[in-house]
Known about the structure:
- By secondary structure, the chain is of the alpha+beta class.
- Helices cover 28% and strands 32% of the residues.
- The protein contains five helices and six strands.
Amino acid sequence: xxxxxxxxxxxxxxxxxxxxxxxxxxxxxxxxxxxxxxxxxxxxxxxxxxxxxxxxxxxxxxxxxxxxxxxxxxxxxxxxxxxxxxxxxxxxxxxxxxxxxxxxxxxxxxxxxxxxxxxxxxxxxxxxxxxxxxxxxxxxxxxxxxxxxxxxxxxxxxxxx
Length: 161
């Protein structure tokens, strides 16, 4: 798996949409690792939680949250101003993944309205199109097989944890 782009919208301390280039190479030099640093309270942990939340949803902590606990968690992660304006909150991740010699570009976006009851939407695209042979109800299972939750600790390491 090779990460390329990550976006958050009205998530944690981030107001509006913010996109981060995670590609690890460019024309001049190779960047083998991405380091995210900042002061306490600047959103580092929110970014790491957002990575996992994007891919694993209510399983992002490694176990299933109850619907009520999950909604409470999500409402706590919505940017405060977005709650008042009833706008959208989302996390999205773009990455390349190879399977049986075929390299595909995936985009995973998980979004919520910012009022109760929460309405979660999950969209997964492979090379710009819905994943062939995978129904909307199967998307979460597909993601868990594509990127097992145990591997996420290798990709998303939070030094404060």
